[in-house]
């Protein structure tokens, strides 16, 4: 789980651990990842700190998890930079910084793990999507989530025939209790995608 902060990340980790799976947890903040691990007490969990925009650091964190748990059966990329901005509000560098979190870290994670999953012949690579329609008040996030959707398609084209199921869960609104986007309910969709057999694979669930 890359991006295991409170909300979707923790709920998904809990959902998979409940099925008896071990978990590697990655977050930028040591406090965040330790808090998540404490919520999963009793499970086989490895918390690791890494910034998804730091390619060397992220790959090192992924290697630690693979070393402890082996090539993962499922990878969930949940990191995102959620901010309100319109075209013209951000500098080009600020857009690159947002893209590095929203898409670049997912690409690094996939490049590092998907080949080994394909060699084994199975696995799920799931990304938290959003913004099913672009919104002018969320320009950088709209661009990033469009990139996520394209990345899922590219991963399917490259690794699908080798047994890797690439998909996204596109969340259409703000996550929280009483919002219609409850973290625990959202987490069930990740498990549903992971359980699909190849004949039933879909690349996106929009909720």
From TrEMBL:
InterPro entries: NAD(P)-bd_dom_sf, SDR_fam. Coiled coil: none annotated. Transmembrane segments: none annotated. Gene3D superfamilies: NAD(P)-binding Rossmann-like Domain (3.40.50.720). Pfam families: adh_short. This is Short subunit dehydrogenase. It comes from Kribbella rubisoli.
């Amino acid at each position: 789980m890359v991006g295991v902060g409170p909300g979707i990340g923790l709920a998904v980790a809990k959902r998979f651990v409940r099925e008896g799976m071990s978990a590697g947890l990655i977050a930028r903040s040591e406090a965040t990842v330790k808090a998540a691990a404490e919520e999963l007490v009793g499970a086989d969990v490895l918390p690791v700190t890494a910034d998804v925009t730091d390619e060397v650091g992220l790959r090192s964190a992924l290697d630690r998890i693979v070393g402890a748990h082996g090539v993962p059966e499922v990878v969930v990329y949940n990191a995102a930079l959620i901010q309100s901005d319109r075209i013209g509000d951000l500098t080009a560098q600020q857009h690159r910084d947002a893209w590095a979190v929203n898409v670049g870290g997912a690409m690094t994670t996939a490049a590092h793990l998907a080949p080994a999953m394909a060699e084994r012949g199975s696995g799920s690579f799931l990304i938290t999507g959003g913004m099913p329609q672009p919104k002018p008040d969320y320009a950088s996030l709209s661009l990033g989530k469009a990139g996520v959707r394209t990345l899922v398609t590219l991963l399917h084209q490259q690794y699908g025939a080798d047994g890797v199921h690439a998909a996204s869960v596109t969340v259409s609104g703000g996550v929280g209790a009483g919002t219609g986007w409850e973290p625990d309910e959202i987490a069930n969709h990740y498990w549903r995608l992971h359980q699909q057999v190849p004949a039933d694979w879909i690349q996106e669930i929009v909720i």
